[in-house]
Amino acid sequence: MTTTVSNDTASLLPSVSSFLSSPRQLLIDGEWVDAQDGRTFATLNPATEEELVQVAQGSAADVDRAVAAARRAFEAGSPWARMTPRERSHLLWRIGDLVEAHADELAQLEALDNGKRVEAARDGDVATTAELFRYFAGWATKIEGTTIPMSVPDRDFHAYTRREPIGVVAGIVPWNFPLLMAAFKIIPAITAGNTVILKPAEQTPLTALRLGELLLEAGVPAGVVNVVPGFGDTGAALVDHHGVDKVAFTGSTEVGKKIAAAASGNLKKVSLELGGKAPNIIFDDADIDAAIAGAVLGGYFNEGQCCVNGSRLYVHRAVFDEVVEGVANAARAIRVGSGFDPSTDMGPLVSQEQHEKVLGYIRSALADGAEVTAGSADRVGERGYFVQPTLITSVTEDMAVQTDEIFGPVVTAIPFDSEDEVVAAANNTVYGLAAGVWSKDIGRAHRVGGRLRAGTVWLNTWHADDVTLPRGGFKQSGWGRELGAFGLDDYTELKTVIAELR
User: Fold this and answer.
1) Is 356 a catalytic residue?
2) Could you give the CA distance from residue 469 to residue 308 in angstroms, rounded to a whole number?
3) 50 counts as catalytic
4) What are 243-287's pLDDT values in tens digits?
5) Each residue of 332-358: pLDDT tens digit?
6) Which one is catalytic: 105, 110, 202, 273?
7) CA-CA distance, 82 to 193, in Å (whole number)?
8) Pick the CATH number of 279-466 from 2.40.50.100, 2.60.120.40, 2.40.70.10, 3.40.309.10
């Protein structure tokens, strides 16, 4: 494992340098404004720990302004309410084109703010965001109802359903995929005709603010999308606000529970994509080389900061040593460094808090008797929040490193002997976001996959995905589904209309 750190600012595009040259404001009612109390906060480069720019810090007063703007934009007779589904479709497509045209700029901002590799941000996060706008552009004209026959003797009725927008949506998103998670909330909401207040994570507000500029450039009417950066109190003000009709949240299960409780004030709709601790099961008849590669991708993707990563590796005892050696060798070969260095395979973690948390879990595992087969609990380098890709063995099911969502490049490996044993262990968690199975016996793969309690199950692959596929969790991994045709269900109300024909 090697570590590299480069001068991130040396290769910045002029547009990125310009974006960072002055404090960033809130987007409320189509205007860029300061926080009402004038407060700002610094967003940092996690590779260098240096300040990037000051960002306006929204308060409850700013949330009030944003909710009022979103409500005005949603009301009947507004430009947004008068926009036809076809016009919304064309608007979404224009935004997708703008995102694609500014892909390099957005990727650099994401790498600076989050730490991920520029190439990963451009080819993954930004490209998928553009595709999401285009995919949902097609759905804007296809939000349909149904006609339902009624069985009433001697009377004629025409009964049908309508799908209507919910109203004002609060989107609260995490820091691991800042632009993409913003897209997950904004796109289906406005496709269905809602209006939005987006609260980006305080660690990574920059691409959400730049996306706000692109939305205005594309012609999104004032107040339809508002962006209010801030801390937990800003998010709490949104969740508590009686002018908000729905909260869409991605983040930890702990915060998700608080949102569900707080939303009871006016019984606002809530959708939650929460934590995960995905089991990745490798049987002895698997393609071992493919399974090792899949375990490395599934465990260390996005610096390990991904809720569907396969952080719990279960390997049949007959091939356990071979798989562990393969994953450990691959982990040691990963080059950790700045996301702007082309030779980097893995960037830093997002923040000092996350850095300390991840290293603390590794140290705790060592204290509990586990072994670090690859990686280390030591800080990497003198600056930046870097962690070595780590593989931990001699783990028991009750260790915190095995039960808790760590959200870093840490994978545990445990041997198993039977199918029933591993299914029971895999399901022995409060989470149910993702899982995976590796076996050449396709019957076994499907059988075991069917027994796993998770919203997404990969068979002989990991992280295969598409914007057409729904995602979400079982158990304490959340409520509702995002993306695909199912992604609109949580952003619409179903109305039944009955007319008697006389």
Assistant:
1) no
2) 14
3) no
4) 999 999 999 999 999 999 999 999 999 999 999 999 999 999 999
5) 999 999 999 999 999 999 999 999 999
6) 273
7) 10
8) 3.40.309.10
